[in-house]
Each structure stands twice: as C-alpha cells, then as structure tokens.
User: Fold this.
Amino acid sequence: MRKSGRTKALYAGSFDPVTRGHLDIIGKALMTFDAVHVAIGTNVRKVRTFGVEESQRLIVGSIAERWPEAVVAAEAPPLGRALFEGALEVGEFTNQSLIAYARKIGATHIVRGLREASDFNEEFNLHGVAERIDPSIPMVHFICEAQFLHVSSSTAKELDAMGESIGWLVTPCVEAAFAARRG
Assistant:
C-alpha cells in the first residue's frame, strides 16, 4: 500500500477564535500534505463569540501574521482564496458531517490536533466513527508544541473577559478583534 497522488488534508474546527495552537497544527499539516483546507464548522454545543465569516477573516489574518510569505499580494486575500500559492484554503461547512465535507472538497486525510490526554478520548471516539463512515479518508493526529499545550479558544475568551493579556494565546489581529468587541 502506497500513497497515491496529491494529498489534501481537511483541518476542521470551530476556531472561535483561531489560536497560536491552531496555527501550530496548520503549520505541521502544511509540512506533511500537498494542500490543507481549514474549515470552520458549527458546533451545536457551543455559542460562537465571532461569526463564521469574521472567524474566517481572523484565520486568514492570523496566517498572514504568522507566515507573511503566505500572502503574495499587499493585502490579505478575500475569504475562500488560497494562501501559500494555493496550498492552503480557508472555508466553512454547515449542516453536513465532517466526512461528507471531506468528500466534497476532495480531502484525502482529516487532521486533528491533540493538546492533552483528555483530548485523546474524544478524538479516539471521533476517529472510530469517521473510520466506520468512510475508511478511505484516514484521520491523522498532530500533537502541538509544548508551549501551546494549554492554549485553547475557551481560555482566550475567558482571559480576555477578565481583562488579562491574551497575546501569548492569539495573534495581534485576534487581539484587536476582541478589543473591538469590548468597544
């Protein structure tokens, strides 16, 4: 058994907001796969702080801040436009399963990030369900760098609400989005 053709990974999450930990996983996926599609999904168990469209802009902005070479033009690309000369796309999916969306975009793999042992149980269950639905799209897990093990979107929201600095959790454009919400 060998890899056939180009690989395309789907990295899906709520990204509300995108964090430095998410960017670490995106970077690892970019080094591993030919193309990466980052998609914002809706989680019925979570109330969003930022709308899906704003979250897409924050992902694109955070990627441009983390990797200036991702954007060739002087300004950030419009939503949906590829970064890194087409190797990275940002999109969204609603009202469909992760596997259905992976099939729709032609993903060959699904990427998931792990921070701590408690993530493993949830990811293990998701892996089992996804494999039952479509075993042809393997799930790959990346463990984030040690400095991001305690980074989460929830932590960023909680610390910001208490007036604490969140620059170590998120990029400047996300910090600015929180500041704009506080008005």
